[in-house]
Specification:
By secondary structure, the chain is α/β, with parallel strands linked by helices. It is built from 6 helices and 10 strands. It has a 6-stranded mixed beta sheet with strand order 4-1-5-9-6-10. The chain has a two-stranded antiparallel sheet with strand order 2-3. It has a two-stranded antiparallel ribbon with strand order 7-8.
Length: 239
């Protein structure tokens, strides 16, 4: 892979956890965890893009050693603005300034337990003839086993299959995006939105590393796990 842009999107506004992108998690700004991972996998720090509308987030990123050459315009900082527009804006900024990329690695700050090895593993699955590699975790509910729909008569029925699976481990595996890693083909992105991609491969992560910070409870769980990990590392225990 060549010409890779690592994008960390960090909007200033957040309703679930106010100011979460720079809120201290186990003593460090949340965005610092994603910057650490990006720095470990990027060949050049100049290929790491912090896309933010907030000067205070840009200041934290700069304190972490990453330059922020632009601030996202206001129209790309609303609750209704999607990731698609943010990615294209970043690509166009760099293209205008003489640098074109053919691959994006999208690292959302809300996945602080994702590791550099996870990113490398996802990148190894990528090829130019697919649209995207996306990180996943095993779905909490399985439509063949414990996910139900209501029929026209108001009765519950299994979402998929004949409902004869009596053990979860016998049902076909089902995955859900965990939001941690997206390795995206830029040519595909310029043709269609991420939701329209048909050539997607998955990189599987466990539940702990898949934690996505959306609520105060998510934050508490992540902070507990990080503190325990730090304690083990300080004692010389490798996990």
């Amino acid at each position: 892979m060549s010409n890779i842009l690592y994008i960390i999107p960090a909007r200033g506004g957040s309703k679930g956890i106010p100011g979460k992108n720079i809120k201290l998690l186990a003593g460090r700004p949340l965005i610092a965890y994603s910057i650490d991972v990006a720095r470990q996998v990027a060949c050049n720090p100049s290929d790491i893009c912090i896309s933010t509308d907030a000067p205070e987030i840009a200041s934290v990123a700069k304190a972490e050693g990453i330059d922020v050459p632009f601030l996202r315009p206001a129209e790309l900082a609303t609750d209704t603005c999607g990731t698609y527009e943010v990615l294209l804006h970043a690509l166009d900024f760099y293209k205008t300034n003489g640098k074109a990329y053919d691959t994006i690695v999208l690292l959302q700050p809300t996945s602080p337990l994702r590791t550099a090895d996870d990113v490398r593993g996802a990148m190894e699955l990528y090829a130019p003839d697919i649209d995207m590699v996306v990180s996943v975790k095993e779905a909490a509910t399985n439509p063949y086993y414990n996910a139900y729909e209501v029929d026209d008569n108001g009765f519950l029925h299994i979402s998929k299959g004949d409902g004869h699976y009596t053990r979860r481990q016998d049902a076909p595996p089902v995955w859900e995006y965990n939001g941690a890693i997206y390795v995206i083909n830029v040519a595909s992105l310029r043709r269609q939105r991420l939701s329209e991609f048909s050539r997607r491969r998955c990189y599987v992560m466990d539940r702990a590393r898949s934690i996505d910070l959306d609520t105060p409870l998510d934050w508490l769980i992540a902070e507990t796990l990080i503190k325990k990990q730090n304690e083990k590392e300080s004692c010389g225990i490798v996990i």
